Amino acid sequence: MATRRQFIKTCLGGGTGLFLPAGSASTPAWLGFPSRVLDPTTIDKYVTELAVPSVMPWAERDEAGRVDHYTIGVRQLRQQILPAGMPATTVWGYGSTRHPGSFAYPSCTVEATFGRAIRVTWVNQLLDRHGNHLPHLLPVDPTLHWANPEGGISWRDARPTFTSTPGPYTGPVPIVTHLHGGHNTQESDGYPEAWYLPRASDIPDGYARVGSFYEQFKMIFEDQFNAAWEPGTAVFQYANQERAATSWFHDHALGVTRLNVYAGLAGFYLLRGGPADLPSGVLPGPAPKLGDPPGRHYYEIPVVIQDRSFSTDGSLFYPASRTSFDHFTGPYIPGSDISPIWNPEFFGNTMVTNGRTWPALSVEPRRYRLRFLNGCNARFLILKIVTDPMAARPAAPVLPFWQIGSEGGFLPAPVQRDQLLTAPAERADVIVDFTSIPVGTDLYLINEGPDEPFKGGRAGTDFRSAAPGTTGQVMKFTVSRPLATPDRTVPPAHLALPPFEPLGPASHTRQVSLQEQNSAVLRGVGPRVVMLGTVDRHGNPTPMGWGDPITENPALGATEIWEIHNSTGDAHPIHIHEVQFQVVDRQNTGHSARPPEPGESGFKDTVIAYPHAITRVKATFDRAGQYVWHCHMLEHEDNEMMRPYRVGPA
User: Fold this and answer.
1) Which pLDDT score is estimated for 5?
2) DSSP state of 106
């Protein structure tokens, strides 16, 4: 059997030898007729302008209560992700239900203001024009521990049992939205078991329409805010009392997050103002605002980078079989414990930035603020700005990034970096200074991360960089015009960032673990699941699944250090919901602890846990309730690498 590394590289190498089913705009590709995977080398690069996400329209504003109300739906739409002249792609997107033109992938940006709450009615509108449910765009593996609507009330949020290998689930799609980076109460977190189906006219009898926690959180919210949750919706309120920061929202339904996010359900949430922000004019701007005229130039731009693969008909490609991962063709059920569709990781062969393949951005010789988000399912990115996109890796950078912020807002001081390593879900708020670059110059944002799971180390020494002609390129910058207006922003080397108050001493240290498990019945087949757990008194990991009893139960208000013991061979991005933590240090076996990387000196909500090492983070748990912590490689999260934790009395 080929190793998973060998097979991943084979899949990324071209694309003409792989097949998947395809279909019409309203039919999932895998339910239709056979179609070849699109060879990424046939896609023209840098012929499409970078799309800058617009601002999400609000529904109404309560000035007395200082609350902005939004009604944001999830719909299916067609979008030109590939260059003009190639087929459009069916995706899912968020948008304002009162503004049909606002639905897009990635979503319009939600602009939030410190001290002013936002209340969002999230609506599942995955319906056809007749009010019937739409099936998933991608193949759903029903053998995982997942939302499982067809299991009914008794078997929702469970791992179903089968006597033979089932096909993909084709019923109504569960969703629930998580504000990643928020600091909110449990009923507004987007808990994976608080999902809900669309209000469709054809939901089969016996299906569960909501997840196990939906009714409980509905009752809590309605009692507190006197705001009803109608069928097919959930209402969340975000207080916006935390530090100004770059956050994002995405789907988080149990066992289908990888598919719902891959289909398009992601968008930026930018919190501005308050004591941890800077006055207007200090940093590059403007950013998009509601009511902007077409063609306005922006000097602050959110940038989400994702890897995708496409079929020749333009549809999204995502594997419909475990064979795409390691050539394992069975036995599945009843002959083994291997899920037939779930892939332990997925790496697309095409880079998509702000919903466009390999776009270009025309810039002036001035400073730009770029808010980077790694929105990939599993891919770690190592970003550089270079003059030659095909240069031998590692390439020499021509411009540095000045990092000014991470997930939890501004760093204590700007950090000059030649490259940016970002794991899935990490954000990096940076300034790129083009002032010294002559008009007419082309520069390229490249990726030197690997086309396989990241293990740490250096490109070209410890691993092979992404394919230079495809996944090793991201976007182009062209200094195409002189300054439109003078640049009066502060040079990044002279920036004084807002005061930074570190967390106080920890009252408790707990040990948690990361591990993979292979098949229990087939030798050498795996991983079967990826898991979190605890560490016993002998230092051995104790793996636990999503359904096992809660073991992480901080007291309300406690500051704790979590020691993350990674016994796997890969790095994992670990996210703890509703807190911002500080990275304390990392330690490999037999070595001294090493301090955080320079870009990790601020607050974070996602941290890279390197293989065979201990990563220590410190957090204050000041929101009572039940939340989750998990790996943000979405394929891992969807198959047991997620655990609930509870703050306050159990």
Assistant:
1) 45
2) S
